[in-house]
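[User]
If only I could read backbone structure tokens as easily as an amino acid sequence. I have put the entry right below:
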Amino acid sequence: MHRFICVFFVTVAGVCAAVPGNEAGPSPSHARARERTALLREAGRAIFSDPAFSASGRQSCASCHDPARRYNPPNARDVQLGGPALRDPGLRAPPTLTYLDRVPPYDNHHFDSEDEADNSIDNGPTGGLTWDGRVDTGAQQAAIPLTSKFEMANSAAGVAAAVRKAAYASTLRAALGNDALDEDAHAFAAVARALAAFEDDDAEFSPYTSKYDAFLTGHTQLSAQEKRGLALFNDEKKGNCAQCHRSQRGLDGTPPALSDYGLIALAVPRNANLARNHDPAFFDLGACGPERKDKAGQTEYCGLFRTPTLRNVALRSTFFHNGKFHDLREVVEFYVTRDITPERWYAKDARGKTIAYDDLPARYHANINRDAPFAEQHPGAAPRLNAQEIDDVVAFMQTLTDGYLKTNPYRERRMTDRSSNLVGRTLSASSRPRSQIWPHPRPR
């Protein structure tokens, strides 16, 4: 599984004071970097909820990523409305912004395996910060909705003008320099960078405070139904959800991301409610277009969308890239009966015949995933999960909502372990602060 590394420093009261060479504290450059990050994060928090950055003057990032829902969509619309008059439907349902720090950079061939000592398995297309994986950094991702014609619909010049007028313009200048907002391109980049800094705030966006995290760290027990759901979630012969939504901690103690972030073709039914889908020639093909351009015409990527994390999934009212589903239980039903009762899921032609995989042209059907629970599905087959088992799986997924705990239990344990290791230890004058493994991605 993916391995994530982040460096953080632990200072134990009364220990470092006695260690030669530590009296000076952080270096000036390190202190300045921390100050800059704090200032960017402060500005980014304000920008996130400021509608002045949209052409309509009525839409902010928070309009589509509700903090009260852990940065999921605020309502059950298939897609959100945007554009200059706030009447243009979006192309896709907004994904959650939580745990983006776990998403690796996009790679056509992501080599990894469940055995962390063995990186020999090619998991194929993996990573990227959008449904189609087309950008890798938080700043790149934050820039997309600011200028998208069906989202905030602004321009670089419009964003620059808005930030110069903002009360927090001085905060950005303090972080990036007095001339940071002088040129439109630089001001736009500063806004995107501030949003990325805010979205990289672990306590806000990657808290690891769900009931499942409490269970994994020994702070609580799951109910009988939740335990059954977890077992079904992991069982390769039943739900097999954990194949793509990794549910176990890493060998180094890394918390599960509840996704492998691979790009996969699930053949989600066409959403007839979307205006673009009224054109029978239009198809949202994910990794090969229309928004992602670099893989246009590469058929092996058509129909592939990135696997989202299931953390906080119970707070969503809209599921999949096209917003086709609005009930978590129905999503699980689709997985276990897609090819058993296709007439339930897919549209019919003029003669009443079911159009299997109706949102993906036939020439791309070879890309569709056939692993369990889709394996051996055909009309008349028995679903791998019955009604009670589906309820159990949904009950488990409801334990993935943050807020059950007040603080990150993994960080608490590592800091405790770190403190124990430092007490009584004599460090040399040239010692640097030691690091810990922590769930934060670094390109390998």
